[in-house]
Design goal:
alpha+beta, F420-0_gamma-glut_ligase-dom (chains A, B), potassium (chains A, B), 60s Ribosomal Protein L30, Chain: A, 6 helices, metal ion binding (chains A, B), three-stranded antiparallel beta sheet, metal-binding (chains A, B), 3 domains, nucleotide-binding (chains A, B), homodimer
């Protein structure tokens, strides 16, 4: 019977710029061994780490007063925008290729007066964590770095993988067959996102537990050269929802108006010539 | 340390119209007890069930030749459409409020010559399964029915909850605080979708395992009157991506053209009056 277990790593302290995340996560795990010897990391374990502590260690804090500036810095383009009584919801594409509100810049679980940007390069952060933890514990394990994203057509948010290392992020079933040998319609199962959500069920937002261990899915742990979470970003050519509906509508409206203006201009200059 | 375990229930036979899903799932679980006595269902367990076997038991099979007709039947509106060398990708809103390709009608893991529609009312199906299994085993448990959905900006698919009963589907953190008492930015964690993804990691598409048990998250199990997965569908007023970008662009373009036509007509009739 396929089976796996997920637990939260307690005892990770508040993280600050320059902190050694490998050492602090390792210390928290080692401190828990007295109570639970099973918590010692094993071959095939997957560590799922909230991006917030990665950002904190990497010094991605900005003063809250510079939050808007930081959002602009991390925004590649605005995808959709809506004004409502509580303010403006701005869905943007970040420089990581993520589509999310406010470029992922957040003030919850961050010391007073500060806002926190996403890690500079979450796949690189995952790689550093993964190789550091592999070396420290002498076991082959995978690392996923998560953040919390909304979805366009469903309420609320779920955690997804924004960084990954040493792990197979997708199960590519294209061309595969089902249990009875018939072709599969589903193409690519995104394991890394399912793992991120699975870990969130023990991490949560209000619990202060930033790391979870997943044990029993060692078949997904692989070399450090495997594609990271950046590979989960859909390419522009496949993106059927590149803009919000209101934004795309306006672009179409303006294009038609511009064509009309051009045509009118042409007719006018034609008439001027005739006159 | 918060902890939970997920395992797949093997031995569920191929399901056909009219089959008693409660009895067949119960039999598969009971058959596994000899090998693993821990597999007996307990208070607080959550059963995650692939919608495919629910549809099969409910007789949602259609001949493959009627696949297109079934897609039309189950489509409320077309959200986005794209023609590509392999055919047409049509993202639609189903009568369940789900936004997905081909209205969820699928031929993989379905007997030859048949396609399978989604369950008529997945929340009702979940309720029937949940109350049936609670009665059968005399324990309080939750049920989630899953399907596999794509996402607009990320590659591939993940499993989400399309039906739920006896379970808290969201953790509504609005107005809540973090571990340090500061307001949380994240509003609603969608536990049911995270559970669906967590279960997919042992169910998979190619393994023929349609049911998983999640143990250790009993705090999420609740009364049978809790909101189902239908409550996870975002309302029209909050939907910033109601149409594909190309579709919205075209609507805007056509609206500007129509306005122009009206104006020209007005001017023409004005001139006719003057003449």
């Amino acid at each position: 019977m396929p089976r796996y277990t997920v637990w939260g790593v307690t005892g990770v302290p508040e993280i600050g710029p320059g902190d050694d995340l490998v050492a602090l996560i390792a210390a928290a795990i080692e401190a828990s061994l007295a109570e639970d010897p099973e918590a010692a990391l094993q071959h095939g374990d997957i560590l799922v780490v909230t991006s917030k502590i990665v950002s904190k260690a990497e010094g991605m804090q900005v003063p809250v007063s510079e939050r808007e500036k930081a959002i602009s810095q991390d925004t590649v383009r605005v995808v959709a925008e809506r004004v409502h009584p509580g303010g403006v919801t701005r869905i943007v594409e970040t420089r990581h290729g993520l589509i999310m509100a406010a470029a992922g810049i957040d003030t919850s679980n961050v010391p007073d007066g500060l806002a926190l940007r996403l890690p500079e390069d979450p796949d690189r952060s995952a790689l550093a964590l993964c190789s550091g933890l592999r070396e420290r514990f002498g076991v082959s394990l995978g690392v996923i770095i998560t953040d919390t994203l909304g979805r366009p057509w469903r309420v609320g948010q779920t955690d997804v993988a924004i960084g990954a290392a040493g792990i197979v992020v997708t199960d590519d079933l294209r061309g595969g067959v089902d249990a009875n040998g018939r072709p599969l319609n589903v193409t690519i199962t995104v394991l890394a996102d399912e793992l991120a959500g699975a870990a969130d069920l023990v991490k949560g937002k209000a619990s202060g537990i930033p790391v979870a261990v997943v044990r029993g899915l060692g078949r997904l742990v692989t070399g450090l050269d495997a594609p990271g979470a950046r590979s989960l970003v859909r390419g522009v050519d496949d993106d059927m929802f590149r803009f919000g509906s209101a934004e795309a509508y306006r672009l179409g409206y303006e294009a038609a108006q511009a064509e009309l203006r051009d045509r009118t201009d042409d007719q006018t200059s034609e008439r001027v010539k005739q006159d």
